[in-house]
Specification:
The chain is α/β, with parallel strands linked by helices. The protein is built from eleven helices and 14 strands. Helix content is 38%, strand content 25%. The strands form three sheets. Strands 1-7-6-5-2-3-4 form a seven-stranded mixed beta sheet, sandwiched between helices. The radius of gyration is 20 Å and the shape is globular. Bound molecules: NADP nicotinamide-adenine-dinucleotide phosphate. NADP nicotinamide-adenine-dinucleotide phosphate binds next to helix 1, helix 7 and helix 8.
């Protein structure tokens, strides 16, 4: 999780309550975020942003009078700037972030001086977003990027583990491995599964004794004990953003991320896609036909 700039400006519409726009609010993560925000802060006006009004209206009705649907395609910069005028905070959950070669929402937010956060989980996107640091600083808006579970919470967990390891041993940690295990089929939206499949078309960037290496996706199986109630599960190499950020920012020489799924047949499927599907375009289309699993227990392992 990267804090690009932390400074607050007064809410644009304080008299009627702050206005929060959730892009991708018609999806699973955006919809859950909007619901949680309205429960935590009933004074917020929550705008559900997306391309499909019919998909958004049930949530708008559920959230009540302070909510409305805003038709916006995040690829349309001028429309984005228009809808961000008068918005106090924009939450960007309209993935997939992989293969997106622009940061239209972040750029529009810095242009309109709107506070910004996203749940980006893509390596290239997150580093591109970081390159707007000076721009965000100049416009004086707080922009919190990659604030989801992975790499947001996982980076914070890694930083804490490294801090603890340094304190206990007095030495410098050498190796960090992220192990993720996903179970079930409900909860997350179709884009999340699409993302997992897109990742199978990407080389895995990892670090070995300080050198960047490229590895094959869904290779390097390990059997990891996730503890009581879950037990031992197989996990495989995936290209996840926390590998680069922990290597660069925490200074760990060796970092990898491995990911596994239940039921086990999903792992065979993922391995098969990684081995035999030649084109990422084909992989991305499968997005529409399969349902994803839930991001569940995450463990980290640090060797000092
Ligand atoms: N960082 C993390 O820990 C974390 C965890 C879970 C998920 N994610 C990421 O969060 C994203 C959302 O996941 P999800 O499970 O909520 O997926 P989802 O249910 O498919 O929701 C994505 C939403 O984005 C909207 N959208 C897509 N393209 C858009 C565009 N050009 N303009 C406006 N709206 C657009 C879609 O609406 P329409 O297509 O109907 O317009 C859809 O409602 C994914 O990229 C996923 O990888 C990150």
């Amino acid at each position: 999780m990267e804090m690009v700039r932390a400074c607050m400006r007064p809410a644009a519409s304080a008299s009627s309550g702050p206005r929060v726009l959730v892009l991708g609010g018609t999806g699973r993560v955006g919809g859950s975020t909007a619901t949680a925000l309205s429960q935590l802060r009933p004074d917020l006006n929550i705008l559900i942003g997306g391309r499909n009004r019919e998909k958004g209206m049930p949530l708008v009705s559920k959230l009540g009078q302070r909510s409305e649907f805003i038709h916006v395609d995040i690829r349309n910069s001028s429309r984005l700037k228009e809808v961000l005028e008068g918005v106090d905070l924009v939450v960007h959950a309209a993935g997939p972030f992989q293969r997106d070669d622009k940061c239209t929402v972040l750029q529009a937010a810095t242009f309109t001086k709107t506070r910004y956060t996203d749940i980006c989980d893509g390596v290239d996107y997150s580093w591109r977003a970081k390159s707007f640091h000076e721009q965000a600083k100049a416009s004086g808006v707080p922009a919190l990027i990659t604030a989801g579970i992975s790499p947001g919470v996982s980076n914070v967990m890694a930083a804490e583990l490294v801090r603890t390891a340094k304190g206990e041993s007095g030495g410098e940690p050498e190796t960090l491995r992220f192990f993720y295990y996903i179970a079930g089929t409900g909860g997350a939206g179709p884009t999340t599964l699409g993302t997992s499949l897109l990742l199978l078309g990407e080389d895995v960037i990892a670090y070995d004794k300080g050198s960047e290496i490229k590895l094959k996706p869904y290779s390097g199986a390990r059997n990891i004990d996730f503890g009581k109630g879950i037990g031992k599960k197989y996990v495989y190499l995936m290209n996840l953003p926390e590998v680069k950020s922990t290597h660069k920012n925490l200074g760990l020489p060796t970092v990898h991320a491995l990911f596994g799924s239940d039921p086990f047949i999903w792992n065979w499927g993922m391995e098969t896609f990684a081995n035999f599907l030649p084109s990422v375009r084909v992989v991305s289309q499968i997005n529409y036909y399969l349902r994803p699993g839930l991001l569940a227990p995450l463990t980290l392992w640090v060797k000092v």
